[in-house]
Automatic annotation (TrEMBL):
<keyword id="KW-0460">Magnesium</keyword>
<protein>
    <recommendedName>
        <fullName>Molybdopterin molybdenumtransferase</fullName>
        <ecNumber>2.10.1.1</ecNumber>
    </recommendedName>
</protein>
<dbReference type="Pfam" id="PF00994">
    <property type="entry name" value="MoCF_biosynth"/>
</dbReference>
<keyword id="KW-0500">Molybdenum</keyword>
<keyword id="KW-0808">Transferase</keyword>
<comment type="similarity">
    <text>Belongs to the MoeA family.</text>
</comment>
<dbReference type="InterPro" id="IPR036425">
    <property type="entry name" value="MoaB/Mog-like_dom_sf"/>
</dbReference>
<comment type="function">
    <text>Catalyzes the insertion of molybdate into adenylated molybdopterin with the concomitant release of AMP.</text>
</comment>
<keyword id="KW-0501">Molybdenum cofactor biosynthesis</keyword>
<keyword id="KW-0479">Metal-binding</keyword>
<dbReference type="InterPro" id="IPR001453">
    <property type="entry name" value="MoaB/Mog_dom"/>
</dbReference>
<dbReference type="InterPro" id="IPR038987">
    <property type="entry name" value="MoeA-like"/>
</dbReference>
<feature type="domain" description="MoaB/Mog">
    <location>
        <begin position="173"/>
        <end position="305"/>
    </location>
</feature>
<comment type="pathway">
    <text>Cofactor biosynthesis; molybdopterin biosynthesis.</text>
</comment>
Length: 339
């Protein structure tokens, strides 16, 4: 790369994109890297404030910004992604499917700790639609030393920083507890809520069993769904600490491995998660019946990409786990439960 006066640049090859800004009208690329400067380009370039240009002159050991961006994309990109055209040395990562965005946050931090390199992403565990821009990367200078890119490759290793995982619809059993519902004193309002939320992911409801506040009956209902091939069981009702709320005890005693009873998410503190072998069992607190977005909406997508969560996964939601309960809910495009 060498610098020359713009008026002397006819026939030279630009080694970087040149941006044009028209306030309130346009900002974008006017000349593309690799463009051969023509006589008629000179007045335009001068009007853009380019009295001097950088034109291509190969330097051993130095990589152009566009090639650097491609290198970073290749080492960081996982599955189900598409990519933008490179503009001004930057390349965007775009979701190729509807799914759950997964970001290797630790590796991303290490990558961004290398001088002259950047990558920005949406939050980990963000639900995305096909076509959503999920990340962008570039090198900062016009040319970057090969050793920086080799350092980046070493830092990333076999990890893939950005991926989109597809949702895998499951067969869902609903166990609803409560004497007031079992004896038909009130109409169950929880079942339709669960059906609506899992239906968004094309899950199949294979049944709903309504139980009294009887631990043994609830255990039997859970086992019936296990035997019927349920891949996810949602238990509603009886999730508080009242003495007659026995749903948590029934789940714990049905043979499932308890992950947590309680979560640092509001609404949703009384949430329970357990696994019966590979089948997740969720104890869903009453807030999910009347709040638009709760712990259920946060955890469900991760279970539908077959992620097996542990206690630390749930505990991590404390930072950001407070819903602001806005008049107009924009979840997941908000700060709620982003880790």
């Amino acid at each position: 790369m060498k610098q020359i006066k713009t008026v002397d640049a006819v026939g030279q090859v630009l080694c970087h994109d040149i941006t044009q800004i028209l306030p309130g009208q346009f900002k974008g690329r006017k000349f593309k890297k690799g463009h051969v400067v023509k006589e008629e380009d000179i007045p335009v370039l001068l009007s853009l404030g380019k009295d001097n240009l950088y034109v291509w002159e190969a330097v051993e050991g130095m990589i152009h910004e566009n090639d650097g961006a491609i290198f970073l994309k290749d080492i960081a990109a996982g599955e189900n992604l598409e990519f933008s055209e490179i503009k001004e040395g930057k390349i965007d990562f775009i979701a190729g499917i509807d799914g759950l965005l997964k970001i290797d946050v630790d590796t991303l931090l290490k990558l961004n700790s290398i001088d002259d390199i950047m990558m920005a992403t949406l939050h980990n565990n963000f639900e995305v639609k096909k076509g959503t821009k999920v990340a962008g990367t570039r090198v900062i200078p016009l040319l970057i030393g090969e050793e920086k890119l080799e350092e980046a490759k070493k830092v990333v290793g076999e990890n893939k920083i950005v991926s989109v995982l597809p949702f895998k619809p499951k067969k869902v059993g609903i166990v609803t507890t409560g004497n007031e519902i079992y004896h038909k004193r009130i109409v169950d309002k929880f079942g339709p809520v669960i059906e609506g939320k899992v239906g968004k992911y094309n899950c199949e409801i294979i049944g709903q069993i309504i139980c009294p506040d009887d631990k043994e009956v609830i255990k039997e209902a859970i086992q019936k769904f296990i035997n019927k091939g349920a891949e996810l069981i949602c238990c509603t009702g009886g999730m508080s600490v009242d003495p007659d709320d026995v749903t948590p005890t029934a789940i714990k005693e049905c043979g499932a491995e308890l992950v947590t009873y309680g979560s640092p998410i509001l609404p949703g503190a009384m949430f329970l998660l357990a696994y019966y072998n590979e089948v997740p069992i969720m104890g869903i607190p009453g807030c999910a019946m009347y709040n638009k977005t709760t712990v259920f909406d946060v955890i469900l997508p991760r279970l539908l990409v077959n992620e097996r969560l542990n206690k630390a996964d749930i505990a991590a939601y404390g930072h950001g786990g407070l819903c602001m309960q806005c008049d107009t809910c924009t979840y997941p495009a908000c700060n709620f439960a982003k880790i």
